[in-house]
Amino acid sequence: MIDATQLAFTIAVATLIILILIFIKTIRKSEPENQLNSKKETEQEPIKETQKIKEKKINLKNLSKSKETVFKHDWLSTSLKAHSDTISGIDFSSNGKYLLSCGNDRAVFLWSTKEFEMHQHRNFRCNVEFDHALKVRFSPDSKSFIAGLGNANTIRAFKILKKEDSSIQIVSANIEDFPQKHKTNLINIGISCNAKFIMTCSKDTTFNVWNLKGGLLASIDTILGNNNYACISPCGRFIGVCGFTPDVKIWEVLFDKTDNFKEVRRAFELKGHSAGIYAFAFNSDSSRMVSVSKDKTWRLWDTKIDYERGQDASLMLTVPLEEKGPSLIAISADSYSVAVTVNTKLFFFNGLTGECDQVIENVFNSSVCEIAFSNDNNYLAVAGDRHVKIFRNITGHKSAIQDLEGQLKIVKTQSAKERVEQLIEQHRKFIENVSQN
After folding, report:
1. pTM over 0.85
2. Which of 81, 243, 360, 433 is deepest in the core (most CB within 10 A)?
């Protein structure tokens, strides 16, 4: 008989062997599971990384959008946003109803000035085929406009058509693009208020005068080294050009009694700056002009002169600027306010005294491309980046009150006094409405 001790030992060894076999079997089963899990983890790692990259991209987009909407100012009425690329030009219509904007996205947008105080803004778009518009200018009747083409350096005309449902359609006019005469890039274009001629000016020393059908009337060498800016006076008589030299040169475009073109004749100059001039502007009746220069000043001139008898424009104000850089200038139609941009900074000045009334920092990320006062003097449009910012012209209303209060002291009749008091009250209400908003 087998000893009980040997039997117990045998059972214990057998049990141990069975346990070892079971342990080895479980380890073998767990190995593929671990490999599978590790495979899943390695596959998930790039997915997580791509998710992180996407999150970063989304955050960057949100960040850029938040940066665009950060700008706020009490005088800001609205920002017109529709362009997908940098804006290059703007223009108000003579009837005061519309604003045009153009840009490098090959688009031109038409905006209603009535909606400047609204949250949403309708716009009507047209595309510039095979090119893009550098500048746009309304015709005197506000029913069409011309665009200065960025690649072809010439003019293309467009019509503004009103449909039965009150919507607007912008189409190319039934005339060919003007002949390509400029050898360098255009810097500005214009149409005279009497619709007698069109002006184009390029970066070299040339400006051209055309009839409305694209016929070249005259080509003028400005002898300025290079042209920085040019425009037609609101009265329709003059073309002004400035450039490398410290002068603004003015020409008169002459027609005979039957409206046939005669000549382009030198009229007068604005002399006094000590460095090249960035830009200049006329008021509504061309009796006042303003200029801004690399000498860190802007100047106000009396141009209500008889230049044919040798009378020169007289200097009224010289106003220093805080900083130096690419600058633009505009004067309101009533001459009560002057706006100057230097780099990304906007200044509002009293047009009577030259006193700085408001400085607005960082209007855009890059330099402003164009500024213009509305015809009713209530707004200043400032174009840059991909937006047009509309500011309320508070300075103009303050200056108007200042001038009218001076008139109130010298008026003699009661009816005139009441009229002046009524105007003062209108200007005060405009300022009060802005402060309440």
Report:
1. no
2. 243
